[in-house]
Amino acid sequence: MTGWSGHDDPSPQLLQQAAASFGLLASTMRLHIVWVLSQGEADVGTLADRVGGTLQAVSQHLAKLKLAGMVSNRREGRRQVYGVDDPQVATLVRLMVEKLDDPTFGGEVHRLRSSGA
Description:
By secondary structure, this protein is mainly alpha-helical. Helix content is 59%, strand content 12%.
């Protein structure tokens, strides 16, 4: 625990870490990978099929997500199986995607895009 109560402003370092995590998820493919893994474990081939990427590209994205502590892997026979390491990250991704898919939220998304935010 960091000692941050949630009532005080977070430290600049904590905000920087949060921005870096959001930046890591700013990639469409990495976001899609986390979305797929939030539904259950998968190997690289399955992920590549689901997200429409090459094995090499998906492997590179998985390596970045693994370094960030967002996904983990384990050996299952001859394959590496990946899963979301932090359920809260999976929840965050699912909430954002579901929110953006909500038709009542669509106008807000359009305004954000138009403003350059």
